[in-house]
User: Fold these one by one.
Assistant:
Number 1:
Amino acid sequence: QDGGGGNNTFCSWKDCAVESRKGNLCTVAIQSVHLTIPRQGHYQHWGATEYNNKTKFVVCVHGFSTDSTIYEALWAPQINALAESNTAIFAIDLYGRGHTEAIDQDYTLNLFHGCLSEFVLHLDIATCGLLCCNGITLVGYSMGGAIVANAILPLTSLIKAAILIAPSGLPVTLPLTARLVKSKWLGGLLFPLAAQSSMDQHVTEGYFDTTADGVTDHIAATRQRLKEQFDVHPGFGAALLSTLQNFPFGGLQPVYEKVGQALANDPAMPTIEVIWGEKDKTVPFTQRPLMQQLLPTAVFTDLPNAGHSDPFAVPGMMALVCQRILENTKTL
């Protein structure tokens, strides 16, 4: 069983008896259904370390260029509250991000779904089947929101709730540079030359007020983490490029529509909350009305004076959402 302060190395998600404890970061060999060889996947864990039939399990999925560290600002300060509420938080690193290996595959929606679902399977094994009994809450940010939305129907029997933070996937007009990068030939030529500097320059666009309390430090930390990923992770840049070229950022309306129809027709379906910054330009808040049409039974929480990154930067902005997770006692 995983330790909240443990850096646990599993030889395979199928063999949870083999583990070692070293720090706060955990690692598990994720063997995706889309691959034929195991790959090392990492995740972070906060909260409960001993599980029972009352434990609340939460799995968090990050966005396009972030990693599991994006969730530290939400959950690290909540260590005591998580333990008291018997809540275990897990934030995974997707392929090619954080400490998870990159792979020589197209970074499609199906590939990321395999990464998430295999981790969920590992977690169920690691908790001796409690995940199936207790259910899980999935939290997805930006691209991670789209990945979570896509997992709701396949994993319905496990999911009790889903929280989508500025979820991507609805139709959007791509700028010329993005359209050029989607070209296999031009993307392979242009992306390595300009990606890091361009992404560094655009970091501030994720915030409504770059001088607000906590935001300046968050910008610096985001830039530093981005630099570390480009400098240290051998597959980070290639993973980003493949994701840009193969992930359907503007083509997931049918996914949300199917989820919305299932929610409307079956009261036993997971509950969904959509959280969106009213000043978000990265995943434009102007898409919210369409999302509400597609997910008519979802609960929508609008964050005033919040850009795309502000929910993780401004102290207290997500406090009520975190509190609802801690207090949630719904079981399947």
Number 2:
Amino acid sequence: GGMKALLLDKETTVIVSMVFSRSKVLEKDVFLFQRLDAERRGQMLHLKAVVFLRPTRENVEMLAKELREPMFGEYHLFFSNVLSNDSVRMLAQADEFELVKQIHECYGDFYALMPHAFTLSIPPNSTLTTPLADRTRDGLFALLLALKKKPAIRYQVSSHDAGRIAALLSQHIDQHQETLDFGPSCRQDDSPPLLLIIDRTEDPISPLLNQWTYQAMVHELLGIKNNLVELPQDLVAMPKGCQDSQSIVLSPISDEFYQQIMYSDFGSLHDSVLSKLEEFKKANPSMTKGANVSFKTIGEMQKFVEKYPQMHKMKDNVSKHVNLLQCLSKVVDRQNLMAVSELEQQLACVQDHKAALKQLLVMLG
């Protein structure tokens, strides 16, 4: 209990934001959010510091410095991965004022996109340097600890990177056997689960095909980074009073409606959003009484959202999905993606390349 400050590093700031909204954190009596590497403020000894960091050497050194010159009255330390004995010793020596009340490992050294998918936020097409290889190993190891699984590791033999990650992870598991002993209740009676490491470059076809399900279209045509979508200014008209709606949070964890439609195809999205708008009309008859409201096109949906700002307060926040649908429709029209996708399917699935080449030359004009 009591008033708290949340101390994070560069990565855990994003990791936490992807699973907890700021309002949810505020409900836990957290009144200050601060990066460990931020410029120091004055002492706030009335606050208890809840610290959640990656256990890197840099972070441990900064935390040790913080403990020697404390800003807060108490420190409760949580690390996203296994903390080395040397790091524990360094922190113990730095805690001269005995302000550290607890220290725990909370295995969350990865970015949870949704309940069944995560990323390590490594830039695409990156060369697997030693720091990136180590980061991948650490993220996978934390995932195994979070799931309480000790798997058999298999990898794509034709990929040097896949073999390297498999070797690094296997060695790391051997070095932390005690950490992976989850007790009798978690011991596997049958064969262990399989961790399969494959190289994305093995499949050259899929990335060349346009996707037509909601989440995949937003990711490919607009871009999703850490569940955040930036809407281009030229693609959507922002509703009045919503200056910050250029950035849209798109997470199945916090958006039940999105969870329902994220795998829907582009054709059925209109109907799903339409049903939500109709719900709003029925729930607010006095507001829309006498108005000639029609939802035949996405443009009409957009006008409705702009006319009724109350839409933004709806639990499902359908207005953001109307905005996204509007953006996607404009990109599909501008880039002639219906025709392009048809040609892609022909090239991928039909062996008549002569006809496909003719169709391509016609398209190119």
